[in-house]
Amino acid sequence: GENxxxxxxxxxxxxxxxxxxxxxxxxxxxxxxxxxxxxxxxGPQLIIDIRSNVGEKKDQRIAVTLNKTAKxxxxxxxxxxxxDSAVYFCAASGFRGTYKYIFGTGTRLKxxx
Amino acid sequence: NAGVTxxxxxxxxxxxxxxxxxxxxxxxxxxxYWYRQDPGMGLRLIHYSVGEGTTAKGEVPDGYNxxxxxxxxxxxxxxxxAPSQTSVYFCASSWGDSPLHFGNGTRLxxx
Lengths: 113, 111
Hints:
- The complex is a heterodimer.
- Chain A is built from no helices and 11 strands.
- By secondary structure, chain A is mostly beta strands.
- In chain A, strands 2, 4, 5, 9, 10 and 11 form a 6-stranded mixed sheet that branches. In chain A, strands 1-3-8-7-6 form a 5-stranded antiparallel sheet, with no helix packed on it.
- In chain A, strand 9 (86-93) and strand 10 (101-103) form a beta hairpin.
- Chain A is globular.
- In chain B, the strands form 2 sheets. In chain B, strands 2, 4, 5, 6, 9, 10 and 11 form a 7-stranded mixed sheet that branches. In chain B, strands 1-3-8-7 form a 4-stranded antiparallel sheet, with no helix packed on it.
- In chain B, a hairpin with a 5-residue loop joins strand 7 (65-67) and strand 8 (73-78).
- In chain B, 0% of the residues lie in helices and 51% in strands.
- Chain B contains no helices and 11 strands.
- At the A-B interface, strand 4, strand 5, strand 9 and strand 10 of A face strand 4, strand 5 and strand 9 of B.
């Protein structure tokens, strides 16, 4: 079945450094890859997404890259700030024409001041 | 604009009791989803709906039922709660091939 693996499960970085979170998906029919940020006590919020016809997308300090051949996609956060501390989830969608979203297991990012 | 609203926010049940979680969205989205979130396991899809009157099973549907009688509402039911259903439940909605909008969750404890 469809599966999304996410690594690492926890990540600590110094303020100002970069953070990278990686995901791998199993179903080659997947065509939409969003990233969500979840703060304590709240639901996940979309921070950036990428579609299968694009290799990279940037939004200020956040970027996502997609390698369709390897079925990998990654989240890059540059110049990290304490408010970036949260749990981040990757997801994949578009399996066989459905709109099911399968999520990775999450990465807890801690930005140390 | 309220977005996705979940009620209740917290609930404690005893084993064998039943309850219904309500999700309401005001964005006219066609698709609605119920996820559960457990430590170390991310968000797992329970059931979803592609439109009013439709439902479909996700990854972990056993022990749950759903209904989508109105486009804006998606109900998740537990007929006989078990301790394994202790979790945080999230509802989400979308147009389909577009980002999910999540509610703020319902924390359920089954003793």
